[in-house]
Structures are given as structure tokens and as C-alpha cells.
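haha ok so turns out i had the wrong file open the whole time. this is the CORRECT one, sorry everyone. sequence first:
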Amino acid sequence: MTEPGYLEKLPFWERLTDHEKEFVQANSNIRRYSKERIILNSEIECLGMSMVLDGELRTCILSEEGREITLYRLHEGEICVLTASCAVSQITFETQMSVSADCVLLVLGTAAFEKLISQNIYARCFAYEMLCERFSSVMWTMQMILFKGYDRRLASFLIGEYEHTGLATIQMTHEQIAQYTNSAREVVARMLKRFAADGLVEFKRGRITLKNIKALQTMI
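then structure:
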């Protein structure tokens, strides 16, 4: 059972009846996962609807050769319904979700989530709104991969991190950036060197400082 304070963060909470609120509270819990833990794939049972209370999740698809394509990441306050994919018949593709930074999740069990969206129109609309939002994120990612040069992809990633954290310094390795931008570490290193030569960034091991944010924004 979860404390009401956490549940009140759910966007549809105030649209639930008292009975539904009690039902959600009785069927939800707080879970903690360590970095690199896989919480969703074809071999793991559905977790349920989840909200990130702290940390970060990464969703990707894998090729038969083992190559990963990062589709999107989830941060504090964001909700995922893919972790309850067996409760939503419209989800027919397979993804893998892993913990990219130690995280705390608010989880509403799959069976309870399925019952809730079948009874409450607001919860159901919210679930489909989340699906549309994630689909939009996936389409944006594929558009970047297919139609944008890596310089623009990297600039977009750096600006995205800046907008998310509000900090001009990004604590991240080349390997992590390569994973998040669907490229290779060598390509990341080469492009960052070019950005540094152009006065856009300054980087040291595990840290990148944005020196000309406006110029990076114009590249996107």
C-alpha cells in the first residue's frame, strides 16, 4: 500500500472516486531499482503503470545482432504505461526498459491498472494520451536518426540535457552519450572535438560544458 502523498502526483488522481482512490492505494507500491537493472523486456512479466519518483529510465529496442536504439528516457515525475503493456491491447511491439540512474518508482500493478482504465474514463484517456506522447517521442527519435546529421543530433541532445537540468555542465561519458544518441563512442568524441574547436563546448573526462548555447540551438 502506498502513501496518499505519492498517489496525489498522478494526473488523474482527482478524477477518481473515493472507492477508486482506495483501490489504487491498496494495489500500488514503491519500488527501488539499481542502475543497469532491466525492468521490462519480452522475458519479464509486466510491472504495471509506473511513475518515476527519482532517477531515470531508458527505453530502447534491440536488433537481432544486439544493437540498441534508445527511443526515449524518463525522468522524475514522468509516467510510463509501457511497463503495463499487457494491460493495453494496443501495445504490440517489444521494447526493453532499463534503469540508467538508480531510481524509485511508484507502481500500480498491471491487473489493477487494467481494471482502473476499464472503469474510469479519465484514467483511460490519460493512458492513451501517454501512449500517443511516447509514440511521438519514438517518431522524433527515428526522424533524427534517418534524416539529421550527427552534428545536429548531438546539438539537440546537449540542449535537451541543458533544458532538463538547467545546468550548462553535463556530467556524462562519451559512451553514455553514444548510447543515448544512437551512435558510436568514436563518433561522439570526434564531433565533440569539432564542437570544441568551434567554441561551442569544452570537455574533460566525464564532463561537458556548453560554451555557446545559442549557437547550439540554431543547429537543431
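DSSP finds eight helices and nine strands in the chain.
again sry for the mixup
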